[in-house]
Write a structure and sequence with these properties.
single chain, four-stranded antiparallel β-sheet, 3 helices, about 30% strand, globular
């Protein structure tokens, strides 16, 4: 059975990303999947953890989306979480988010700002960097 959070987030995602092939599975884990457009990147999987969402960001890492504002209703909290997730996904799908590393050895994401990742990041997580559409070619 779908949770209150899923009930509010799924329509938001469907409305904001109609062409991204979202697969929804209310009450299941994950409850939403955006299939990868490049095999090296991997799918986006969204899990309901009750009071927050965990988003598996392809083959790289995961992120948490939550809201602990006091004095707001469960519905407002769910709407805020859904909006924060939608903003992140908008940036991701527009290739404004870089991904690196892996779930096995640690990984991460960052907003693309025109600068290369630092040497320490490349040593720890590897030099390859990806965006939603695939590998970033200029990384060495």
């Amino acid at each position: 059975m779908a949770s209150s959070l899923e009930i509010h987030v799924l329509p938001e995602l469907a409305a904001r990303f109609p062409g991204k092939g979202m697969q929804s599975h209310p009450g299941a884990a994950p409850f939403a999947i955006f299939p990868a457009v490049h095999p090296d990147v991997g799918d986006i999987e969204i899990y309901d953890d009750g009071d927050e969402l965990t988003v598996v960001v392809g083959k790289f890492t995961h992120r948490h989306f939550s809201n602990y504002d006091q004095g707001v209703s469960q519905v407002e909290r769910a709407c805020r979480i859904g909006n924060d997730l939608a903003v992140f996904l908008s940036d991701l799908f527009a290739d404004r988010i870089e991904m690196y590393g892996s779930h096995l050895g640690g990984g991460g994401t960052r907003l693309r700002d025109g600068r290369s990742r630092g040497l320490a990041s490349k040593v720890v997580f590897g030099s390859k960097t990806y965006v939603w559409s695939g590998p970033v070619r200029h990384d060495a």
